[in-house]
Amino acid sequence: MYAAADFLAIVPAHWDEHRFAEPFETGERMTHRALELLAIGGGPANLALAIAIEELAPDDLSERSLVIERNETVAWQRGMLLPEAQSQVSFLKDLVTLRNPRSKFSFVNYLHSIGRLNEFINMGNFWPYRVEMSDYHQWVANSLEKVRLECARECQEIEPRRDSDGTLTGWVTHLADGSTIGSRYLVVGAGRDPYIPPVFAGLPDDRIIHSTQYLPRIAGLPGDVPYRVVVIGGAQSAAEMFDAVGNDLPGCHRTLVMRSIGLKTYENSKFTNELYFPSAVDDFFDAPPDAREQILREMHISNYSGLAASTLDDLYKQVYLDRMTGKGKLRIETMTDIASAREEGGEVVLELADRRTGTVEELRCDLVLLGTGFVREMPTMVRDLAASLGLEKIEVTRDYRLKIPGQADAACYLQGVNEATHGIGDSLLSMLAARGSDIAHDILADRAGRAVTLTSTSVTAN
Q1: Number of domains in the chain
Q2: N or C: which end of the chain has fewer CB within 10 A?
């Protein structure tokens, strides 16, 4: 009788090369590589998975796993790494601690390794600065010993591969540099697409900055020009940009436009925060549709359409001082829709529709900053993959595996896009350690099951 570990060893280390591999071309760049696991996106979700693979999986899987990131470096919320912005999640909800508090990849060990642990403890704060959380993620990427991570590798297309019987045997991922990667297991963790409201579609790109591009784009503008800046949105990213642009473009006049009645804080009681526990995922996944809908509706303000209390207080002080001094450089428009947006005579012209009175007012500006969040539907990459598989509906199992009809000897997992089935915390740091474990164990179980099948087939053949 074989043990599970014996089954894992039976899976051939080069299982996929006969299906995918063409000989590597001579020269510096390979045209094709054959791996067992490819994770697309070098953000915290796939970093947590990489840690789980290193700590839980045998070498023949971990050493044949690769994470690719399209940017030149690993960073967390790179467009909004503002100097004083803090994470809204405890440092203990890092990439690994909730799964393995003894792990060398913990945030605490990161602080210890760079010599800042005492100072962090002395600060007496559970919430690290966003820039140090981002640096922690890069440190993890640099500290991986078995799973590889490569930057400047952009995915352009994912092609399912099937054998002559129609069985799904794996994936071929096409990169922007013309090379391809074959894998049995695929994990998509590249994040959601930024949401650009249709009303702004006609504006030139140099007039619009989404929050995901705030820092690099704003850095390219002259700081001594008295820009008229309009920020769209009533949540954390919009408020942070409204605050930051006053320092980044010191002479600017700022207007904040939102549809809500006013800025409000997140709902973050300790009771509702229990719905961000990893253990809450099982209850949510097993709940009927009406219960899921109620939970998401009532928890919305705990993650969306709100601000951290400290951000709101600081912003109100700025508005108060502007009114007190009569400078008139800050303006906030509530219950307001953008009826239209156009460029005219070197200016952006916005038509503001007051939802209370129905009146429409023109507002002329130079720059529009969008704190409009992300598209709620599945990312383009996932929808394109689903289309290539002929899926009418995108669904995942409890272990985040994409449901694919028919016979399959390969699997795909989706990270951070399953709020409808896995709960409000699916896209947040709170779930990463546990989710990495769920996916890693599902892959290990699949490999063990395949080893059993191979062994049984071999015995029968003999």
Answers
A1: 3
A2: N
